[in-house]
Design goal:
The chain is an alpha/beta fold and 311 residues long. Helices cover 43% and strands 14% of the residues. It has a 7-stranded mixed β-sheet, sandwiched between helices. Helix 7 crosses helix 8 and helix 12 runs parallel beside helix 13.
């Protein structure tokens, strides 16, 4: 794949880079290097420091390596961000000064119809970011009705779940559901007409839910939160850009946990638990894209950036 084919607009670029407070001699991890937008901005600010750029998508790794070739401080690794501790161990690095995660599906993955992420273009039903393991095709055609319902409720917060699941089960009895447009049409036909007229594509939540399930996104995020926070130096920062309420809730909850101190009952005259806060929030409310960014990158509309500093 050529460098020109891989297009990705980095969301909240300035805000996230500023939020990391980059030190020229620090060690930084970009756990979702994607099109190297954030990585390049980090690398530019380093002198004796080091950047470790990870991505689980082999296409992305190839492009990131090309785009960061001019920065000797950068190491590009094909890995999932849930494995940050393992990656650091393999490099002999104990602690880092900052970690950035941008949890959006890259523009490239959405635009490359063949990857099967988009309900707008005809493609095999795939959705695997790492290009390996269980695909969306496997899930949609083999999961039980109960499993599909749980996925759509939990990961898509889809209120028409029963209707959509019934339509999928019915359709796949005749023949396997093989393409993105087949699935999108099945979902559209299952959703009541009034809801179809009501903002957004009717298949949006279903596709989001299946993508999250196929890639184990929330489990990976849960692992990455603790794994990465533990490896920060005191004063190190962790910045995360989320794109839907489930991710944002998880990050908010984890960050709240890190900032919690004493857990003794209020009636205790002195603290006996000895628990101290491990982090402090850099911004109380999440940072969202401004009007200008929303205008040139409509995909940024649901983005939220949260930053925590380790104490």
């Amino acid at each position: 794949m050529s460098d020109m084919d891989f297009h990705h607009v980095s969301v909240l670029l300035e805000e996230s880079i500023d939020g990391l407070e980059i030190k020229p001699d620090g060690i930084y991890i970009d756990g979702t290097a994607g099109g190297a937008g954030h990585s390049r901005e980090i690398a530019k600010r380093l002198t004796t420091g080091r950047l470790i750029a990870l991505d689980k998508d082999p296409d992305a790794v190839e492009i990131v390596a090309e785009r960061l070739a001019e920065y000797p401080c950068a190491t590009v690794i094909h890995s999932d961000f849930a494995d940050i501790p393992k990656v650091l161990d393999s490099l002999g690095i104990e602690k880092v000064n900052g970690v950035l995660l941008d949890l959006g599906v890259s523009s490239h993955q959405l635009d490359d119809a063949e990857r099967g992420f988009s309900y707008h273009s005809e493609a095999p039903l795939d959705m695997r970011m790492s290009k390996e393991g269980l695909s969306a095709y496997d899930l949609v055609n083999n999961a039980s009705g109960a499993e599909l319902a749980k996925i759509l409720y939990d990961y898509g917060e889809e209120k028409f779940t029963p209707r959509i699941v019934n339509a999928i089960l019915e359709a796949r009895q005749t023949k396997p559901i093989e393409t993105t447009t087949q699935l999108a049409d099945i979902v559209r036909s299952a959703v009541p007409a009034a809801a179809r007229r009501d903002g957004g594509h009717p298949a949006r939540k279903t596709f989001q839910a299946i993508r999250i399930a196929v890639n184990g996104e929330l489990d990976k995020l849960s692992e990455a939160l603790d794994g990465a926070f533990d490896r920060l130096v005191p004063g190190g920062r962790f910045a995360i850009i989320t794109f839907h309420s489930l991710e944002d809730r998880m990050v908010k909850k984890a960050f709240a946990e890190y900032t919690k101190g004493c857990t003794c009952p209020p009636e205790f005259p002195v603290c006996v638990c000895g628990k101290k806060p491990r982090g402090k929030l850099v911004n109380k409310k999440p940072i969202e894209p401004g009007a200008e960014e929303l205008e040139y990158n409509h995909r940024s509309r649901s983005a939220k950036l949260r930053i925590i500093e380790k104490l």
